[in-house]
Amino acid sequence: MTASETFEAGKTYMLYVGYTVGNGYEKAQQVSVTTPGFTPDNNGAQVNPSWIGLKYTVPAAQQPTTYTVSFKANGGTDSMADVTGVSGNYTLPPCGFTAPDNQQFKAWAIGSLNGEQKQPGDQITVTGDTEIYAIWEDTPPAASANLDISPDSITFVAAEVGYAAPVAETVTVTNSGDAASGPLTISITGSGADAFTLSKDSIPNGLPAKTGEDTFTVQPKTGLSAGTYVATITVSDGNQLSVSATVSFTVTDPQQSQPTYGISVSPASVDFGSVEAGYSGITPVTITVTNTGSSDTGSVVVSLDNVGKWKYSLFDNGTGNATDVIYWNGLGINAGSSLSFTVQPLNNMAANTHNATITISGTNIAAVEIPVTFTVTPAQTPQPSQHNVAITGSYAQNSGAGSYAVGDIVNIDAGSRSGYEFIGWVINNGNVTLADDDATATSFTMGDEDVSLTAKWLKKSSSAGGSNYKIVVEEADDGSVAANRKSAPKGATVIITVDPDKGFELDEVTVVDKRGREVELKDKGDGRFSFKMPARDVTVSATFSEKEQVNPFTDISEEDAYYDAVLWAVENGVTSGFSATTFAPYGPCTRAQMMTFLWRSIGRPAPASTEHPFTDIKDDYYFEAVLWAVEEGITVGTTPTTFGPDEPCTRAQMATFLVRLVGDEAEEPAGRYADVLLHKYYALPVEWAAENGYIDGISEELFAPEDVCTRATMVTALYRLANK
Question: Taking the model in full, what pTM does it have?
Answer without folding.
Answer: 0.35
